[in-house]
Amino acid sequence: MQNSFIKEPYIQSPKEDGVTVMWQTEKEARGQLSVWQAKASLCGDLIYYPQSKEFLFEGPLAQIHKIKAVGLKKDTDYCYQATSFRGGEKLKSPVKVFRTAPAANSSISFCVTSEFGGADASMQLMDKLVTQISKERPDFLLFVGDMVRDGRISLDWDKYIFIPFKRLFSTTPFYFCPGNHEENSSLMSLFLDMPPRGYHSFDYGCASFVALDSTQMATHKKVNGELAIVENAPLTHSPWLKPGDSSLSKERLPRQVLLLLR
Fold it and tell me: 27: domain range?
C-alpha cells in the first residue's frame, strides 16, 4: 500500500531567515523540503511560481516530519514542496507558498480565534471562518485554546484543526496557546513546533507575544475528589510574570501581547 499524508504540510515558527514545515505520513519515511524564492503573477488570481535555485533541507526517518528551512531572506515569498521517501516510493505535496517574517518593528497583521472546543455545532462555521480569514490574508494565526474536544485524542487534532484549516495552514503559519480542552497533552508538542511545557514566547515584526497555559499556572491537588489550588505554592509560570524578568518586560519591541484562555 502506498504512503499517504495524514496531515498535509503546514507552516510553523516563521523567522526572519526561515520557517519550520511539518507534516505527517501514514508510514515512516525520510523527509525532504524543497524551497525556491517565489515570483508572483497576477492573471485573474494571484499565483506564485518557483524561481531561482532550489534549496534542499533533509529530515530523518519519521511519520511526523519537522524540517527547518534556514538561510532565507526576511519578508520574502518562497515556494516549497514536501517530499517523503520510502524505498523507491516518493510522496510529494503540491507546491505551496510561505513568507518569512519581517524585520523587527515592522507592521503586522494576524487573526485570533479560540473556543471551538470540539463542539459539533462549531464545525458548521469552520468553512466560513477559513474563507473569511483567507480573504484577510493575515501574516499568521493565533489559536487561543479549546480548539479540540480532548487534546489527548490524536484524531481530535485532525478533525477539529488540521482538516478544517488545512488550506490556510499550507501558506499561513499559526501559533497555539493551550486551554483546558487540550488537557496539557503531549500531542501539542508532537504536532506543533512548541515546547512541551505549553507556555512559550515569540517575536514577530513589531510585537512580542507570550502564550500562557492558564490550566497550569498554579499547583493543584485533589480535595474530596475535586481539584483545588495549593496555597503559597510557586507559580509554574512565574519566570514569565515577574517584573524585570518577564519576556513581556523586555522592552525590545514596541508592542507586547499576552495570550491565555480564561
Answer: 5-99
